[in-house]
Design goal:
By secondary structure, the protein is an alpha/beta fold. It has a single domain, classed as Aconitase, domain 4. It contains seven helices and seven strands, in the order βαααβαβαββββαα. A hairpin with a 4-residue loop joins strand 5 and strand 6. Helix 4 packs across helix 5 and helix 6 crosses helix 7.
């Protein structure tokens, strides 16, 4: 599976409290969560994110509490994939479970770069800079979960 999108970039240690502030945890409505995604870190995010964009961050993305609301808010906002140098382990698992594609990659990506990600090959083509990087591709079972929109959806469809 390939996706192409524009990079929206953040730094290190982006925690779940800024991905979706705790005051919005009273809802599980995906559209409501998306409307408040990143608002405590980046007030412009919701107005500028487009379907298929790619969130890029530094180390330890998704640190903090173990709420599934964070990857749900990111995915519902239109982000197709999150690329970071590293992820907090619980966020990594929650992202897969909710069908949000995530990639650990330590290459040079700038805000606004157009990226093409091939999950099967493990290739990240920065179309803006004209370079290709590699990352460990997802094993087939994880690709299946992401392609089907999350763990529960994949289990229902694989019966």
């Amino acid at each position: 599976m390939k996706i192409t999108g524009k990079a929206i970039k953040y730094g290190d240690n982006v925690d779940t409290d800024v991905i979706i502030p705790a005051r919005y945890l009273t809802t599980s409505n995906e559209k409501e969560l998306a409307a408040h995604c990143m608002e405590d870190l980046d007030k412009t995010f919701v107005s500028r994110v487009k379907e298929g964009d790619i969130m890029v961050a530094g180390a330890n993305f998704g640190c903090g509490s173990s709420r599934e609301h964070a990857p749900i808010a990111i995915k519902a906002s239109g982000i197709a994939c999150v690329i970071a140098k590293s992820f907090a382990r619980i966020f990594y698992r929650n992202a897969i479970n909710t069908g949000l594609a995530i990639i650990e990659y330590d290459g040079d990506i700038s805000e606004g770069d157009i990226l093409e990600v091939d999950y099967e090959k493990g290739e990240l083509n920065n179309l803006t800079r004209g370079n290709v990087g590699v990352f460990p591709p997802f094993p087939p079972f994880l690709q299946n979960i992401i392609n089907k929109g999350g763990l529960l959806k994949s289990l229902r469809e694989d019966k």
